[in-house]
Amino acid sequence: MKNFKIALLALISILAISCDNDDDDAMGLTGAGEVSVTFDNGYAGNDLILGTTNAANTNGEVLTVTRLSYIVSNFSLIDVDGNEYVFPKDDSYFIISQEADLEDIALPNIPSGEYTTLKFGVGIDDEKFQQGGEGQGDLWTRAEAHNLTWSWTAGYKYINYEGTFTSESVTEETDFKVHLGRIGDLVNYEEVSLALPTTVMVSDEMDANIHLKIDASKILVATNNLKLSEKAILMTDAEKAPLVAVNASEMFAVDHVHNGNGH
């Protein structure tokens, strides 16, 4: 019995030390750090190479993509306790462009902590749109430089997805264009929420990178099945634009998280 009590006391001591160490680890995350996000564009599990023919999608359509650009916005991170840190809105609009090799964004001054979920939007939310040019800073200029504005009206293209395609019924190379944006009061802005497979650790001594894999094929084939052979130019279609928006929100997946050294 005496030996049992000694063993029990020893076990309790070990557990107490372990808990203290865990507390020390958590308390060691102080200050603020940077979280970068990489948007690694692909197509159906392969790298997206502009001008290269891809495998047929489930509609039997073979796409050669020549342009993929899109706007991501309104980033936030949710920590292990469920608290959400919202990145400053005015600094939270970014352009991803395969043509211009723009695939990384930086979110500086993230409060120290352990984060388990990444959230962001695809496109321009109504609040930002209603601010007009004065409240949008240089966003219009940046978007215009990457073919993400309409030439005929004051509005943004959230996604510019272009190329050529063939199918069983369309045997000659035919242009396709998918331009998603606001149509009147139809905002077509969608939010994305991604659980992180590894906890993001941030402090004044540790930055982190979240590497996303993007499957551009889902813009047409995901929850909604959109056939280019039926309509190859999708721009201001009030019926199909919301379907494209939902599909586009599903093209993002977390590949891995890297917790590295500080800045």
From TrEMBL:
The keyword Signal applies. Residues 1-18 form the signal peptide. Keywords: Signal. It holds the Pfam family MbnP. InterPro entries: MbnP-like_dom. Residues 33-234 form the Copper-binding protein MbnP-like domain. The keyword RNA-binding does not apply. This is Copper-binding protein MbnP-like domain-containing protein. It comes from Cellulophaga baltica.
